[in-house]
Amino acid sequence: MMGGPSKNPELWAFLESLHYGEILSGTVTAIERFGVFVALDDGPDHPVFPGVGFITIPELSWRHFEAASDVVQVGQRVSCEFLQFDTWNLEARLSLRATQPDPFQALADGIVVGQKLHGRVTQLIPFGVFVQIADGIVGLVHLRELAWTPVETPSDVVQVGDELTVVVTEIDRERRRLALSRRQCLSDQR
User: Which one of 44, 116, 144, 173 is separated from 134 by 20 to 30 angstroms, measured CA to CA?
Assistant: First the structure.
């Protein structure tokens, strides 16, 4: 623990003055497995870390990515939204993705349940397949929605890379999830 206000009065006062949703600018100083450090333009230096600002991995982008370095580079200028004062680490928790439009909500505005979409299979899992229907947006086709006849495993019906036509069955804005059906696009084979 780095001590309370008495140990780092300037830093503590700066962090206490910040408000949720405030936009802070800075420079990416280090990329770690657990997140990204940002040296803030207006704040004091951190006694231990390479920056007072910190972005956790999920707060970097709305889109799926493999590594933090796919999203930001050391030395890059960023503007982030302030989330909270982490009093344990004496840092400002930031969100980079909050400053960007959420592609899921934009897509959800333009589609309706029952609509047909085209996509590509990106992943097979035991209970279904993930289908990418827009840049950075993936929906789930549940096993029971893959075909009219019961399917043991997704690979019996589709492979990664297959192009599919699917129907939107559910749009969950809260959890940013899209449920799709392939079965409803196939003529009833029963």
Answer: 144
CATH-assigned architecture of domain 9-99: Beta Barrel (2.40)
Reading the block at residue 134, the tokens are: 């827009």
Q: Return the closest-CA partner of residue 47 out of 74, 92, 11.
A: 11
Where do the structural domains in the chain lie, given as residue ranges?
Answer: 9-99, 103-185
Structure tokens at 33: 């497995």
Tokens of 45: 């230096």
Instruction: State the residue for tokens 């079965």.
Output: 183
Please give the class, per CATH, of domain 103-185: mainly beta
> Quick one: residue 114, left, alpha or beta (phi over 0 = left, psi -120 to 50 = alpha)?
left
Is-same-fold flag (9-99; 103-185)? Answer: yes
- The bridge status of strand 137-142 relative to strand 163-172 is unpaired
Note whether 185 and 165 are within 8 A (CB).
Answer: yes
The predicted-structure confidence for 63-87, as pLDDT tens digits, reads as follows: 888 899 999 999 999 999 999 999 9
